[in-house]
Amino acid sequence: MGSTFNILLVDDEVDVQGLKRVFLKSKIGNPITVARDGIEALEFMRGENGRERRPKPHPILLDLYLPRMNGIEFPGALRTDKDLRAAVAFMITTSKADEDRMRAYGHNVAGYIVKRDPANTFMEAVALLGHYLKVVEFPA
């Protein structure tokens, strides 16, 4: 994964720490921005409320269960923003519910990953993201 990719993690502190450990173990040194919920993530992506705007592209790993703006509302907000609608978001969640999965894909998430065993799921998700970013061409 090239250093030009700025990864946005939108999740609680426990999962963020787990994901950061996996990125380190996988030797992925991309810049990582952490947001606690969808509102904070949008502020980073837009450079609002005193937050430094993160450069594009910014692939996103987000949880479904977030305060203020959850993991279904956030991709919905992305898709209605002409400047952010092309952002690539992967949902990483404990929810196995068909309704949640369908709603996430309805907002064009790139993937819906269920945390069955967090340590292994995080390793698999980071490997997937690493491979994805190596082979996919992003718009400027």
UniProtKB/TrEMBL annotation:
Residues 6-130 form the Response regulatory domain. Pfam families: Response_reg. InterPro entries: CheY-like_superfamily, Sig_transdc_resp-reg_receiver, TCS_response_regulator. Transmembrane segments: none annotated. CDD domains: REC_Rcp-like. The modification 4-aspartylphosphate is found at D63. This is Two-component system response regulator. It comes from Methylobacterium oryzae. The lineage of its organism: Bacteria, Pseudomonadati, Pseudomonadota, Alphaproteobacteria, Hyphomicrobiales.
